[in-house]
Each structure stands twice: as C-alpha cells, then as structure tokens.
Amino acid sequence: AQSVTQPDIHITVSEGASLELRCNYSYGATPYLFWYVQSPGQGLQLLLKYFSGDTLVQGIKGFEAEFKRSQSSFNLRKPSVHWSDAAEYFCAVGGVNAGNMLTFGGGTRLMVKP
Amino acid sequence: DTGVSQDPRHKITKRGQNVTFRCDPISEHNRLYWYRQTLGQGPEFLTYFQNEAQLEKSRLLSDRFSAERPKGSFSTLEIQRTEQGDSAMYLCASSLSRRGTDTQYFGPGTRLTVL
C-alpha cells in the first residue's frame, strides 16, 4: 500500500529565510509525486509535480522540489519565504496502477515570523 | 478554464438527515475524484470516476455514501442518515488523463457539520 510521511507537523521560519519541508513516500512502482498548498478553509492548490525526467522540478511561487529515489523523498524548498507563504502544505503520491488516486501525508503547517 | 466548483461551500445538518453535494469539474476533464479531509489531517481518497463509470471506491465509503456522475459531467455525493463522524471537508478534484499521467485540480471543498 502506498503511504506518505511528512515528519514535521509544524514549522516556523522567519520571513526571508530559506525553507525545506520534508516528504517521504512508500510506493511499489514508479511514483508520481505532488506538493499542494492549502490556506485555511480552502481547497488545495497545486505547487508542483513530478512524473519522470529531471529530478529537480520547479513550481509556482518560487518553490522547487527534488525527487531522490534512493531516499524515497520529495522535499519541498524555497530560498526565501514570504509572509504570504504561511499555510498548510501537503505532499502526495499517486501512480498509474492506482488510477492515480492520491495518498496524502498529514501535512506541515508553516508559520512565518516577521 | 473556470476551475473546479463545489456547491454548497458549507452545510450544517442534524444527525440522521440526508445531504447531497455537487461538484462541477473543469470542462473536458474525464476523471473526477472525491476526497474527505478531517481537521488536522490530509485528504483521504473516497472514490473516482472515469467519464460516467465509477472505477474505484475506498473502504471509507460506507453504504450510507453514494456518488454518481451522470453523463460524465458533474458529480454528486450523497450521505444518508448522517452521523457526527461524517463532519469533514469534502473535496472534489478533476483531471484529464493522458497516458496514465494526470494532474488533479481541486475545488474549494464543501464543509459539512453534523450536529
């Protein structure tokens, strides 16, 4: 069965500092990996995705993520955080074998200090 | 591309009542998914459709839950005899499947509160 672990439930960073959110997955075949962001009471917005090819993927809002197969990880990074980045971030794994139904991690809540 | 829409955005009901939610996917998207998200958790898969066919259902989807997608366009999710444990955000997503890779775009969700 596929699973996703986001080890950090809460992270607080200062505005302008760099950010890395961790994601580890378990999937029996080639994974499709996604990061979504959710503001309070809202739906999920896609930040970036990985299907194949270059293991470093760029997304919206200055985010990037790196797929490391040997570590089963897909960590999200941003070089300089803005106050508007405060939200909940979800990593998800899917694949063609499962009709691409997504399995999500528990999320990481990001707080940004001024 | 107007995005995925869901209606209503909020629903408060009493235990034992039936509720129905609607999802309108992005036009021409052939796949439609329903997820449930409880407070402080990530979304959990409930069911998905490819066109009008319901292809997968989670064990989370009890007999009180039913979903339809007539004509392969909008979808409805009905919960019969609601229980307090059904209180959650119900999220709909749609995608256009291409060679097995597809990206799901989510709607704003319907927040259900069962009193």
Please sum up the structure shown.
The complex is a heterodimer of chains A (114) and B (115). By secondary structure, chain A is mainly β.
Write up this protein.
The complex is a heterodimer of chains A (114) and B (115). With 114 residues, chain A is an all-beta fold. Helices cover 0% and strands 51% of the residues of chain A. Chain A contains no helices and 12 strands. In chain A, strands 2, 5, 6, 10, 11 and 12 form a 6-stranded mixed beta sheet that branches. Chain A has a 4-stranded antiparallel beta sheet with strand order 3-9-8-7, with no helix packed on it. Chain A has a two-stranded antiparallel sheet with strand order 1-4. The model of chain A has no long low-confidence stretch (mean pLDDT 93). Chain B is mainly beta and 115 residues long. Helix content of chain B is 0%, strand content 49%. Chain B is built from no helices and 11 strands. In chain B, the strands form 2 sheets. In chain B, strands 2, 4, 5, 6, 9, 10 and 11 form a 7-stranded mixed beta sheet that branches. Chain B has a 4-stranded antiparallel beta sheet with strand order 1-3-8-7, with no helix packed on it. The radius of gyration of chain B is 13 Å and the shape is globular. The relative contact order of chain B is 0.33. Chain A binds chain B through residues 4, 32, 34, 36, 41-46, 49, 51, 90, 92, 94, 96, 98-107, and chain B through 4, 6, 31, 33, 35, 40-45, 48, 50, 55-56, 91, 93, 95, 97, 100-109, 111.
Intertermini distance of chain A: 41 Å
Please tell me the overall pLDDT of chain A. Answer: 93
Choose one word for the global shape of chain B.
Answer: globular
Beta-sheet strand percentage of chain A?
A: over 45%
For the largest beta-sheet of chain A, the strand count, sense and barrel status come to: 6 strands, mixed
Number of E-state strands of chain B: 11
Number of H/I helices of chain A: 0
DSSP E strands of chain A, number? 12
Q: Whole-number average pLDDT of chain B?
A: 93
Low-confidence stretches of chain A: none
